[in-house]
Design a protein that fits this description.
Helices cover 47% and strands 0% of the residues. By secondary structure, it is an all-alpha fold.
Amino acid sequence: MARDYDADVGSAFPTASEKNPTLTIMAVSWRATDNLAEPIRSGEV
């Protein structure tokens, strides 16, 4: 089964100049990476 992941989450956050979504973007990207790595670790891919 093919899985598509899009970690380009920066465009999903409406931000103003005083708000910084960097940590949230990093957390979402990290989670996507973990989800990609799990099948590799278990030998599914």
